[in-house]
Amino acid sequence: AQARQELEDGDFDAARQSYQAILDADPNNAEAKGALRQIDFLSRATSQRPDAVAVADAAPDDIDAALAAADVQILNQDVTAAFNRLIALVRRTSGDDRNKVRTRLIELFELFDPADPEVVAGRRNLANALY
């Protein structure tokens, strides 16, 4: 209950510590694992520039700008656009750059229910982009 309240209050550091303590005591605690993913995302996304989407649109091959924009888009509930932005970048990159974008995309998928239609479509589109 305390960890959830800390998260709701936006105290990401305290919430991270509380959920990590839960996970340390119970390594299979799915709620704590999910909460830690949410906390990591929220702390990263809320620290992005407010104009991150415009910056990325102006420089479509800038990986860091695209990752920041996708975070902001997810935060603003523009999920499909965020997924599509990164999938398009996967298609245009290779090697370590491609892996970096793919890894972030999978992290973003994990923020949602695996059966969510946007996630299902995103995973399918990612698979098509990779192969």
Question: What would a concise description of this structure say?
Answer:
The chain is mainly α and 131 residues long. Helices cover 76% and strands 0% of the residues.
Polypeptide structure, described:
The chain is mainly alpha-helical. It has 2 domains: 2-45, no CATH class; 52-130, no CATH class. It is 76% helix and 0% strand. It has helices at residues 2-8, 12-25, 30-45, 52-58, 63-75, 79-92, 95-109, 117-130. The N and C termini lie far apart (44 Å).
The residue-averaged pLDDT reads 94
Structural class from helices and strands? mainly alpha
Q: Main β-sheet: number of strands, strand sense, barrel status? A: none
How many domain modules? 2
What is the overall number of helices?
8
Amino- and carboxy-terminal Cα gap: 44 Å
Q: Show unreliable segments.
A: none
Please estimate the helix content. Answer: over 70%
How many β strands by DSSP? 0
